[in-house]
Amino acid sequence: MTSAFVELGNACYGLWRRGSLAHRLVAVAAGSVMLSCAGIAMAQDFSDPDYGSEVAMCREALRADAAEARGACDALLQSDEVTREGKTRIQLDYASLAITRGEFAEAERYLDDALLDNDILRRKNIYRYHLLRMKSLIHLRQDQFEQALPYTREALSVALAMGREHSIATSYNDLGAIYLETGRYTEALANLQKALQELEKTENYYSTGLTLANIANVYRDLDDPESSVEYLMRSIDAHERNLARNPDDAYGIRALGQVREDLGITYTHMGEYASARQALSEAFDTFSDADWHPDQIRVLAALADVEVASGNARAALRLLEQALEMEQALPPKRSVEIRRALVASYQLQEDLDSARRYAREGLELARASGQSPDELYFLEQLMTIAIGRGDARDALAHQQSYFALFRQSLEERYQSRIAELQNAIEVRQQAQSISALKDERESLQRSVRIQRWLISGAGVIVLLLLAIIVLVLRQRAAQRAYVSREIALHRQEFDTDDGTVDTDETDEGEAGENDTGNDSTVDTQDNFAAALVGLMCSCVEIWEQASGETRIELAEKSRAWQVTVDNGRLRTRTMDRYCDLKKLPKVPRWRQVVRTCRYILINCDLSAAQRQRLNDELERVFAIQRNQALRDEA
Known about the structure:
By secondary structure, the chain is mainly alpha-helical. The chain has helices at 2-16, 21-42, 53-64, 66-78, 84-100, 104-115, 120-123, 125-140, 145-162, 165-181, 185-202, 205-221, 225-245, 250-270, 273-289, 293-309, 313-328, 336-348, 352-369, 372-389, 392-494, 503-547, 551-558, 573-577, 590-603, 608-633, and strands at 564-566, 569-571. 82% of the residues lie in helices and 1% in strands.
């Protein structure tokens, strides 16, 4: 599809030379899209494998003759044998071809078809990036800058997600062009500077030169010719470095010639005619090396403007005669710039007949190309020439045509501006609606969160109340049990035989019984503590033997003991206390020891003796606990 993209490049170049500085930046944006789309066909941006010979043949056919290839390629789009990604490539190629031909509705249709049920565009950012940029280009080519802005911003987001410096720079450049066209110079300059920063990371001197030239044009539009000259000189340096690396780069050669031409035009506006002649002569030599005659003709017209501005009409006419000779050797396409320069030159020599003849030719060319500014210029010149010749009727006719066209141009600009403002208002309204919906959603989310917190808080309060009620009931039950035991004890004392038992003997006997009970309780506690410590020590010993790991791993894996860090070392302080009878807590948590023992019995490969040892010691702990429970009940 190389030829198709060359056509798109030529169209963008025509837009570049359209007189308005803002349109030149839009042309650069369109040209950058051309380069990105060309990347699809030339595999510059894709590293995927081939998607079948049929897809390759279709794409080759599109390069040669899109009209004849369309039927075969449409059949491939309907075929089940072609992958979804292969179809996406064909659809993007179709869309880019339609853009080059100005078939914007057709391009939109292919892009919309590519969006339908296509997960490739969701999974691969490179496809979505090119689709968004082509969407933007469709609106840019129709001067619908506000409509192109959302697509360009989204393309920039995708480029940032990909992290590809060249794509990021191109998107920033597109935004700069759109902002400049809509009169937002500060934002235009900021985006172009960001594009320049990204390009400096890539050492892509060609794109860097284009961006520097764009910045120079912004400064020239802001009536800052000194800054414009500075950036144009930097652009020339970047293009020369690109050609030193790629001497056969046709795009680089043309870009260098264009920047030198712009430098000469800028010098002309500044009144520095010597510098302007030098820059334009270098531009002419650059185009001569590549035999680009239309560019040479345009440069000759710019040199003639320099001579006219400096008052040298004869030199201007010689240059224009040379341009006319070159124009005759080209296909039937005549230059408006040459006619403008000829009119100015003959007016300077007071040759009004020749000036009128070339002004009429220029007017016909301007009307044929639909360029209202050029048409207005030639009508104004014809009116001035008629006044100079004393032909009042002819001057009045040209004046009426001039004002009619001027009024029509103003109405078109007014309608276009109204349409842009309406679109901007719609976009703002949609943005406000989206913002309002977001605020409403956030408010609902906050309300839901508050309700959840209230419900959770109420639940916690209910649980606390229930816990308090349970504790109160247990305390009252304990108090009732205590009172019942006291009543039973007193009844037993009053039921003794007629009170004949000696008080001292009774007290002594009771004291002896109590002492015996206390000793028994102490012995039971000591036995339980010893059994618990013995079980814990056996657990640690058998764990280390069976697993080959330390007690730290036992504490972590069983989740029964806490592991702490002390002076940069892991320690199991709580477990260690249960391995020493002297350090054992007064109220030990014997269930943690039992849980540790059961974890080892379940998860370790133990010998019969080890398993029997743990089971015996575990049973001993349970036996002491059962005896203690029975004694408490008695």
